Amino acid sequence: MTKAEGGKRIDLSATDRIAVVAGSGRLPVNVADCLADAGHAPFIVLIDGETDPGTSLWGYEGKALAIEQFASLVQLLRRERITHLVLAGGISRRPVWRAIRPSVPLFRILPRALAGLARGDDGLLRTLVSLIEDNGIKVVGAHQVVPDLLATEGRIGAHAPQDGDWADLRAGLEAARAIGALDIGQAAVAIGGRAIALEGIEGTDLLLERVRDLRTNGRIAGRKRGVLVKCAKPGQEMRADLPTIGPATVDAAHAAGLAGIGVEAGRSFVLDVGDVVERADRLGLFVVGVTGERGNT
Amino acid sequence: MTKAEGGKRIDLSATDRIAVVAGSGRLPVNVADCLADAGHAPFIVLIDGETDPGTSLWGYEGKALAIEQFASLVQLLRRERITHLVLAGGISRRPVWRAIRPSVPLFRILPRALAGLARGDDGLLRTLVSLIEDNGIKVVGAHQVVPDLLATEGRIGAHAPQDGDWADLRAGLEAARAIGALDIGQAAVAIGGRAIALEGIEGTDLLLERVRDLRTNGRIAGRKRGVLVKCAKPGQEMRADLPTIGPATVDAAHAAGLAGIGVEAGRSFVLDVGDVVERADRLGLFVVGVTGERGNT
Hints:
The first copy, chain A, is built from 9 helices and 13 strands. Chain A has helices spanning 27-37, 73-79, 104-118, 121-134, 142-145, 165-181, 204-217, 247-255, 273-283, and strands at residues 18-22, 43-47, 62-65, 84-88, 138-140, 154-155, 187-191, 194-198, 227-230, 244-245, 260-264, 269-270, 286-290. Chain A is globular and about 65 Å long. Chains A and B meet through helix 6, strand 8 and helix 7 of A and helix 6, strand 8 and helix 7 of B. Chains A, B: Residues 153-288 form the LpxI C-terminal domain. Chains A, B: This is Phosphatidate cytidylyltransferase.
């Protein structure tokens, strides 16, 4: 599948028609709006119970699908003459198997779907992707069609890291890479030149909540500054799970008493970048795109 | 300083006299009782506000010292004709500098103490250790004088890992080693063959509390079994911070819904091993000493 090194930018032509399978969170909203701004208003596959309500996603051409109707996704995309598909956002709910109705599309993909299922959720997703691609539709990474969402190198916003923050950025990046290599998490918090908290399955929100608690209950009370670092894992599958930060990350980092955020340039998304910059500037946090083995900009 | 590979067993002779600086927790209690059982009843340096009250430590010959009196430790040890010293247990409080009274011992060590202090808490500790050793007293690791406290290879207690638990033990060990190499933590929790939570500065208790919460709030609800793995970091300073488990670890692992605990054989302490076995057997948890690059027993 497309690796970090592979996923080159794709220039959509006037005849291309792109669809976005919109899971939860701000990524699908950012992807759709960016595509529309570039003159490629997307077709949105809204997933029941996953796509966030009340966003611009509901204003585009599209169709709502229950997660149990995954077998009919290929038919839908063919009917709409889709040429490129982006999978964006989280899908947290698993199909309720007894809610799946027998159908021709289902029976057609069943053998492969079952084989994929035996390999876990990830296996099912990969099976779906290969089914879609067998029908001549390219499954592409969000970064390939809306590269503007990727973190750029260097300062993002008004504030820059202080000299002393670079030790934290390096320690955080080193730790985030190490746990990424083991496919455990994408984020680390470093304070005083040392990684002190690592992201597991709990996610970045709970990681930052933990750091906030550690600030108040004494373990790291009195220690100033510190950073959150997020980076992609080595060999990251760029079509899913690319690290993201957004305005809520800035708020949570601030609540955790951190001085700033480092994100891997070119391999992480900064969502709602206008709001990110506005909040970071107002709260006095830096946001910086880092790269290279040593976390230099 | 003594590395994991170095710290060989020391056979105390009848003329040797050993002292234990007793910080918090069960380790100093286990060390003192083991030494007494072997016929080397220790002299205990009780640290105000750190040594746990109501333990057997208070029944040995000894003297209470405030953390601010660290400068007089060398004099005390010389007066008691101590030949070997073990530092055991946690020291969480830092000296209150205005509570330190000027004294001859203090002025004698001040230049080196200040230099050590400039390198942080760890630097101060190392300075103290070298001061003590300059006075002909050997600072030794607990494992060197009471090797019986070390985890042994294989099953500890009645229950053994099931076949499927070995993938968790390997994943947990791999993750704990990776974060140990970066000097971040010593423990990891793995479920379903994947590390899902990593220990940072918060410690093992809060790590297990987090896993318990993740079981109940849905992130890993429905996933059975799983293990806690603790191991020493590569190049571990064996005279401090060797990983430990005890009865409370068994209780917390059980509360987190885990099937068992893996500890690095020969480089971790199992404290109050009788209670550990009794609780693990009763709760149905396995405790196993693991070793080798692949976590095989």
